[in-house]
Amino acid sequence: MVEREKIIDGYKKGIVALQGLLAHGRGEAFDYLIGEKTQVFAEVAIEAAAALLLISKKPVVSVNGNTAALVPEHLVALSKELGAPLEVNLFYRTREREVAIYNWLRKHGATMILGVYDERVELAGLESKRRIVSKKGIYVADTVFVPLEDGDRTEALRRAGKNVITVDLNPLSRTARTANITIVDNITRALPLLVSKVSRLRSLDSITLRKIIENYDNEKVLGMALEFISKRLEHLASKGVTITF
Ligand code: PTJ
Questions:
Q1: Could you tell me the CATH number of the domain that includes residue 230?
Q2: Among 91, 148, 152, 177, which is best to mutate for testing ligand 1, by the most ligand atoms less than 8 A from CB?
Q3: For atom 1 of ligand 1, which residue has the closest CA?
């Protein structure tokens, strides 16, 4: 099933929020600008993300409607590879969607799912419903993997002293600019690559993993993504497409 159909199917199943359809459209536009391929700036970020997840003591994989609809099997694979829980954490939270996503993840083999039936607490400094997090999950996590995230919560997670890894096709978004590591790529390509990277880096010692993280520069990586996009626009313009700003 192609991505758009997965999102629409997810909406019909009560997994994706109506606003998730808009978010997907925004993502498609940026995906076109990065050539619909995993570029080197994403590969570098994926390696750093794998290293950070491996040295973290309590990593958590946050799941929203769009990621659940697009890549359920890879979310489950990442959770198993890391021995880390999935946590259902929704921006447009309703009990029906939480339960639908929980059942959907179970159907795809998930065994550790927080945020639906366990105890929840509030994360300080947040207005949205995403402030409600699992007491055993995001609340105590040292690193949170939050693909397709909104800027407010990324900032709140950083303020709470957590490492934030995101996947966002828009290198200009507040989330992209606030996270410690931003993978500018489509979640459908990035997640399987991240799972296999975690599996390959697992044999490295913690000193080597820390070196990978120390050498990583998120600002530089976002700059590479923006440069790629502007070159692509120049290329398109040179082929006769008129672009006005
Ligand atoms: O399921 P919920 O209630 O938690 O809501 C989820 C959405 C995604 C609707 C909500 O978090 C939201 O509105 O997010 P934003 O603020 O639209 O941000 C989503 C970001 O993800 C945007 O910058 C999009 O460009 C980007 N994006 C969309 N689709 C993809 C993507 N990035 C990577 N891969 C995609 N497939």
A1: 3.40.50.12640
A2: 148
A3: 65
Number of domain units in the chain:
1
Q: pTM, whole model, 2 decimals? A: 0.96
Indicate if ligand 1 lies below 6 Å from the C-beta of 153.
Answer: no
Cα separation, 52 vs 164, whole angstroms: 10
- Look at ligand 1, atom 24, and give the residue with the nearest C-alpha: 27
Residue 244 lies in a domain: no
- Neighbouring residues of 16: CB distance < 8 A, sequence distance ≥ 6: 7, 10, 65, 66, 68, 69
Asked if residue 149 belongs to a domain, the reply is yes
Ranges assigned E (strand) in 75-157: 86-88, 113-114, 120-122, 132-134, 143-145
In a domain, 245, yes or no: no
Tens digit of pLDDT per residue, the chain (245 long)?
Answer: 799 999 999 999 999 999 999 999 999 999 999 999 999 999 999 999 999 999 999 999 999 999 999 999 999 999 999 999 999 999 999 999 999 999 999 999 999 999 999 999 998 877 777 788 999 999 999 999 999 988 888 888 999 999 999 999 999 999 999 999 999 999 999 999 999 999 999 999 999 999 999 999 999 999 999 999 999 999 888 887 665 55
Ligand 1 atom nearest to 70, measured from its CA: 36
Indicate whether 243 belongs to any domain. Answer: no
Q: How far is the CA of 200 from the centre of ligand 1 (A)?
A: 28
Q: Tokens for 197? A: 């990277």
Q: Is 169 in the pocket of ligand 1 (CB under 6 A)?
A: yes
Q: Which domain holds residue 102?
A: 2-238
